[in-house]
Amino acid sequence: MSGQSEISKITINVGEFARDGYPISRSMARRMMTACVGFDHVTLDFVGLELNPSSWSFLDEVFRVWARFHPETKIDVAGATDSLMSVITVKQRQLQKELQK
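and the corresponding structure tokens:
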């Protein structure tokens, strides 16, 4: 052994926690992210999903709230549309501003 710890990874299909092609609700986001606790690296796969008004709370829960309490976990995004990525970026920036206070 080289003394380096192995990085634990998980990929989550966000579509399994969506309804009609849209990520919805904070509670669904919390349910999804419970599977990610303890992993070093999480990839969230948004393939086939779109943005709607309820998606904002889902994305806020993942990329601002959950990320604040799990700073040891790196979250990557795959397959997100431009509109989803723009909201994810907003939520990540909000978290950074909160952490700077």
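(Above: one complete record from the training split.) The chain has a mean pLDDT of 92.
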